[in-house]
Design brief:
This protein is mostly helical and 294 residues long. The protein is built from ten helices and no strands.
Length: 294
């Protein structure tokens, strides 16, 4: 397996389960999300088999098992998106989290197409697999972290500018994907805007990290913000290089640099940081009640 394949597998094996847990901590779990969490280990195992096999029918069937997990999460996201439309309390964060779950279905569908050996709209590999990676990381994981950051800002009454940034983070991955089919200029422009939006999110994440109640969460969130800031600089540089036809940054190089910074440095540490902080926030009232009783 190459770097892109390994980075993708890190999503169903590690990143998505963490995102599921954080989503549950933020807004709870419905029937679809609970079913997806129970099936996730099996789906991730089939995704591993699908990546091990050569493209074809058997690899596609393995990818379909992971697609089922993604579809269940997306179903919960649709329900949550409808509920967020009727709710003002935490509506921005809930709606953002709902879109993150829907992103998984898009990424899962592209994985199935890639492993079946399909070429939708003439798109060649590794672009198909990279699109699956894109919607697992830039879609699901990044948007989940953005939802947690937005929720923290909403609690402090500092959500206005961040909400505008989050809207871009939610929508631009789809514009980037559309750029592959419509226009190289659109792809470059959307990629640059997305990189800039995530870089701004990194500044908010760093500020939230400094205010986190848990010491471990403070470290994790601030390291994550630094990693994604560097990763988005590379992403923006690659978007320009790709548009002008330069080989200054290749896909393997991006997998070794941007992929590691974004997947491990940002998504892993960012999700872990917000999980640790949410656990600390939930435990604080319980500890206060116990201390009063004593």
């Amino acid at each position: 397996m190459g770097g892109v394949e390994l980075i993708f597998l890190f999503a169903p094996l590690v990143v998505v389960p963490l995102g599921m847990a954080l989503g549950s901590a933020i807004s709870g779990s419905g029937w679809c999300e609970s079913a997806a969490r129970r099936l996730q280990p099996l789906g991730a195992a089939f995704a591993l088999v699908a990546m091990w096999l050569p493209p074809g029918r058997n690899a596609g069937l393995g990818a379909l098992a992971w697609m089922l997990v993604c579809a269940l999460m997306a179903g919960g996201g649709v329900v949550e998106l409808i509920g967020a439309a009727w709710s003002d309390a935490g509506g921005g964060a809930r709606a953002t989290l709902a879109v993150a779950k829907i992103d998984l279905a898009v990424g899962g569908a592209w994985l199935v197409a890639s492993r079946l050996g399909m070429r939708p709209a003439g798109i060649q590999e590794p672009i198909g697999l990279l699109t699956a990676v894109h919607f697992h990381y830039a879609g699901f994981a990044t948007t989940t972290i953005a939802a947690a950051t937005l929720l923290s800002a909403e609690k402090r009454g500092q959500k206005l500018w961040l909400r505008r940034v989050v809207v871009l983070i939610v929508g631009l991955p789809y514009v980037v994907a559309a750029g592959f089919l419509i226009s190289p200029a659109l792809k470059m422009g959307a990629a640059l805007m997305f990189s800039a939006s995530v870089a701004v999110l990194a500044l908010f994440l760093r500020a939230c990290g400094k205010r986190a109640h848990d010491e471990t969460a403070r470290v994790l969130l601030q390291v994550a913000s630094a990693a994604v800031f560097a990763g988005m600089v590379l992403s923006g540089a690659y978007a320009v290089a790709d548009f002008v036809g330069s080989d200054a940054l290749t896909i393997p190089q991006m997998a070794r640099t941007h992929g590691i910074l974004n997947g491990f440095g940002f998504c892993l540490l960012g999700l872990l940081g917000w999980l640790v902080e949410s656990a600390r926030t939930e435990d604080a009232p319980k500890q206060e009640t116990r201390s009063r009783r004593e």
